[in-house]
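Feature request, filed as a ticket because there's no other form

It would be nice if the structure record came with a short human-readable summary line next to the tokens. Right now we just get the raw output. Example of a typical job, pasted below so the devs can see what we mean:
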Amino acid sequence: MTGAEGAGAEGADAELIGAAEADRIREAVASAVLGASEGLAASLEHDAEGYLRLVAAARIGAEESSRLLREAIQGARAAGHSWDAVGGVLGVSRQAAQQRFAVKQPSGPTGAGDGPERREITPVTAFTEMAALDEAGKDGWHLVDYGSFRLVVEASEHTWEHRRAVGGHRRLAAEGWTRVGPGSFPWSYYKRRCDPAS
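Raw output as currently delivered:
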């Protein structure tokens, strides 16, 4: 392995995130793990059981980091980045990145069954999906599912508005917005039926 190959992800990260930023991220993750369970850090001085609590907290942190990485990768793909680019940041080949992180699309028609008609809007990217939802909402379609490069909308007799926001927002719920799906880091998707003009 050459020095350039060995640099891998750290070399790619250095171009996108500076060393000071990387240190802040690492410190924040460590602080979150140690601070999540009350008294965990202090217990490590005198309680062997504290180390098992640390393992449990670190496992949860690793699972959440893994989820965030997967969603960030899907976001990069939705923004139009190639598997080559994603693999370069991860320090792996295009094929390795795609095999590990590609989301399997559901098979079968989206309009099957006795429920309201559904259709898939594809391809869309992070830069075009909101305009596509605006148009669909004006025609009575509302978002019910989404994935990489696709939106699934359902027909209704009402017009709809859609919104994408960073993280979850309780304020949106108070304003009548309904969250669609679990979110896709860093975005959460919302819809709201438009009131008829009086």
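Something like this underneath would help us a lot:
Helices lie at 3-16, 19-36, 40-43, 49-78, 83-90, 94-101, 129-138, 170-174.
Residues 49-78 form the longest helix (30 residues).
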